[in-house]
Specification:
Distance between the termini: 72 Å
Largest sheet: none
Strand content: under 5%
Order of helices and strands: HHHHHHHHHHHHHHHHHHHHHH
Shape: elongated
Helix content: 55-70%
Radius of gyration: 23 Å
Structural class: mainly alpha
Number of strands: 0
């Protein structure tokens, strides 16, 4: 008897097949490709799909039936999703054709092939990746090609995605690029990072439904496992825990698990670049939860020198962000009186923020001015804040404007 068709979302079915081609490196247009794919799927998932089933899925054998749910679930698991329905919920965008600038992107990938991310020269890598992001912002339709290639390598995932988070583009090319990162993630640490970043995106978008979806993926990671991860990833997870508490409480309370994560970062060697970076990540989250004393405590032990691999101009960008976090937190605790605020805000406003999160920190700065400035300053800050919210989509920052701060 013929199998009854299972009507699936054909649009996502098409995305699924395109991602299979991308991950496998196969065109899936020949019998030999299908055999290789069958072997990859069995090795990755432990599940068996027949050659005939895969031939039907990729159109090598014509048939009038939709792909079964069982087949779609196995394919989704090969792509690092729990099921096809999980893929439909999580996946961000249609996959664009990857033919554009393939040669240039492949050359770029070769530059980083077989480099051990543990032993790599971080100074050079950091600067190269920042340059790549600058190019992505300027060259249309290059982003998906670069992200797809970077996600293929352990080094690309470690540095390009994890250590150079383009926070201002969470609702743009960086956020969409996380789909490629998840596609090639092969460690629990990488899954933790990906869903923690997507929790941050959902939080800034004030989208609790989407936040809960991603938070469910990581809520049960044990602290004794997390402590073996890098400082930056631990901090991203700690931030996700804090955002969950903010979403679920009318006031902020550091829970036992959040406190353990904060302690892990606070007690690590604070001369290390990633540890200091981790403290700033946690301080940002704590600030958004109005836990101002905790912000000051976690930043207290940071040494004056940020990182040996940064020159003075680059270091200033991070120090300026750190100074803003401290200033905002001091204001929140009442440690800084109004007369001293304008000069301190002016000093911060006269220096640049790092371009990966310039808009995010500009929102924090304008939010602080809105809270402390005179009528004219507050009016300008409100206008700037609304423009930045519109540009980034971070509607979380609408709240100070909507809570009756009339200017």
């Amino acid at each position: 008897m013929s199998r009854r068709p299972n009507i699936s979302n054909e649009r996502y079915n098409s995305y699924l097949k395109e991602l299979v081609r991308l991950k496998s490196g196969l065109s899936c247009s020949s019998f030999s490709d299908i055999q290789l794919l069958q072997s990859q799927i069995k090795k990755s998932t432990g599940e068996y799909l027949s050659v005939q089933t895969l031939n039907r899925l990729f159109g090598l054998i014509k048939n009038d039936f939709h792909t079964s749910t069982v087949t779609l679930d196995i394919i989704a698991q090969y792509l690092n999703y729990d099921s096809f329905s999980d893929f439909v919920k999580m996946y961000h965008q249609p996959t664009k054709t990857l033919a554009l600038d393939e040669q240039a992107a492949d050359l770029l990938t070769i530059m980083f092939k077989d480099i051990d991310p543990v032993r790599g020269n971080e100074e050079c890598l950091y600067k190269v990746f920042l340059n790549i992001y600058n190019v992505i912002d300027r060259v249309e339709n290059l982003d998906h090609v670069i992200y797809a290639r970077m996600a293929r390598t352990a080094l690309g995932r470690k540095y390009f995605f994890e250590n150079c988070v383009y926070l201002d583009r969470l609702n743009g090319h960086y956020g969409k690029g996380i789909d490629f990162y998840i596609l090639h993630a092969d460690k629990r640490e990488e899954f933790l990072f990906a869903h923690s970043i997507l929790c941050l995106q959902s939080f800034l978008n004030s989208n609790y439904t989407e936040f809960a979806l991603h938070f469910e993926k990581i809520r049960n990671y044990p602290v004794n496992e997390i402590q073996t991860f890098s400082s930056a990833v631990i901090a991203r997870y700690g931030a996700a825990l804090i955002f969950n508490e903010i979403f679920n409480s009318s006031f902020y309370i550091v829970t036992e698990k959040s406190g353990a994560i904060i302690k892990l970062i606070a007690e690590r060697d604070h001369a290390d670049f990633k540890t200091r970076y981790g403290r700033i990540i946690l301080a940002e989250a704590l600030l958004m939860g109005e836990a101002y004393n905790d912000v000051l405590q976690i930043l207290y032990k940071i040494k004056n020198k940020f990182c040996a691999c940064l020159n003075d101009a680059e270091e200033m960008l991070f120090l300026n962000q750190e100074n803003l976090l401290r200033l905002y937190a001091n204001y929140g605790t009442g440690n800084i009186h109004m007369p001293g605020m304008p000069e301190k805000i002016k000093a911060i406003n006269s220096k640049p923020f790092h371009f990966l999160l310039n808009e995010f920190y500009s929102m924090l700065l304008n939010q602080l001015i809105l809270l402390t400035g005179n009528n004219k300053e507050a009016k300008t800050a409100k206008s700037n804040l609304l423009q930045l919210v519109h540009k980034t989509g971070f509607v979380f920052f609408n709240e100070p404007v909507q809570e009756g701060l009339e200017v």
